[in-house]
């Protein structure tokens, strides 16, 4: 970034900060003014479609407008930090630096880094390996800090904790939020460790957002996670809402729970609870404990695709469907193209579901990891399919993951039961073949050409 660009970005940041302060007074009256200012100051072509969507939401006062108003009513500290860290640092200034680094280094540079601070968990959910691993695997605070520091130097300002249960390491996570106050931190969590004290700490650091895991209604959650867990999660959501703290939900859909989690009742219940977003994940049959019968059928996945899109245009919540929304992000986002994952042992993996790696962050820099063989294979191979309803090199194009792992010599980094890529890919071949005709029909129906 040259000096003129730096000055322009600084002016844009200052103007947006000033405009955001208007929202505190009267959001409904000042939102159109804020958008006008953003349009005036934005560089040509900068998030044109997204800015257009926000502008029409304001004009039409639709479900997105209701969501924007909910954000405006959050705790002022958490809200302005979100705008500054997420919109300005991660998306505007960070993206420019990511692109610059990418062009200079010839590798992918991520928008977000997913990190497992620990393999430990306070619950003992059916089918989950975490409890057995206990406290055995951890990234130290120094290691977490070093990853964030290296990431920021490349333009990455978004960090997402996975696990294990990240909040088992509450103290270190808050220390990281405090030290890197210009980054936004999000955490997948079972929600049971969120209490009054932790909400106060969230208000203090301002840049931490939980994404609470829910698998449906009370019976489904308690059946898998243990009796009383749903009640604790409900209490956590009440606390977050009463403090004006932003939070969302993370839901994995399977052949068993898809109907519940795509129902209007489920959407309405989490909206009432105060959630601002819901992130849906398709079940991935990874590791020794995988249960292929949990994979949704093509009909079930199609229904998820349709219902999530319907609710996205009618309900005041931002819903993302990790597997069916690839068209909005140009296909697979892993391998550092938009994100990467570092596990609690330090293995740098292309994706939170793809446990193959050539490098460990304890032995190399983040940039070296991005240039490691499997990351470069992702870089060179993306998008893995022109049909964005078949984005994944493991789930929908298993021959591609098989080949990337063979060519790069990446080793399995699965904690629980390391498995050969051939074993994993043999498991997904029937699913991929079964899904292909439906994916082609849906892709054609949405106005695209089938490759
Ligand atoms: S590797 Fe598969 S699951 Fe991971 S981001 Fe790419 S498409 Fe999604």
**How many discrete domains?**
3
CATH homologous superfamily identity of the largest domain: Aldolase class I
Distance between the termini: 38 Å
Task: Please estimate the helix content.
Answer: 40-55%
Number of DSSP strand runs: 11
Q: What amount of the residues lies in strands?
A: 5-15%
Query: What is the overall pLDDT average?
Result: 92
Give the overall silhouette: globular
What spatial order of strands do you see in the largest sheet?
7-6-5-4-3-2-1-8-9
Characterize the largest beta sheet: strand count, sense, and whether it forms a barrel: 9 strands, mixed
CATH topology of the largest domain: TIM Barrel
How would you spell out the order of helices and strands? HHHHHEHHEHEHEHHEHHEHEEEEHHHEH
Q: Using the 3D structure, state the CATH architecture of the largest domain.
A: Alpha-Beta Barrel
Structural class category: alpha/beta
Alpha plus pi helix count: 18
Q: Specify Rg, calculated over alpha carbons.
A: 21 Å
CATH class of the largest domain: Alpha Beta
- Stretches with pLDDT under 50, minimum 5 residues: none
Bound molecules: iron/sulfur cluster
Helices and strands in order:
Blueprint: H1 3-25, H2 27-41, H3 48-60, H4 63-72, H5 76-105, E1 112-115, H6 130-133, H7 141-154, E2 158-161, H8 170-179, E3 184-189, H9 196-205, E4 208-213, H10 218-225, H11 229-242, E5 248-253, H12 258-261, H13 264-273, E6 277-282, H14 298-312, E7 318-321, E8 339-342, E9 348-349, E10 356-357, H15 366-370, H16 373-381, H17 398-408, E11 411-412, H18 421-445
Parallel strand pairs: 1-2, 1-8, 2-3, 3-4, 4-5, 5-6, 6-7
Antiparallel strand pairs: 8-9, 10-11
The structure holds iron/sulfur cluster.
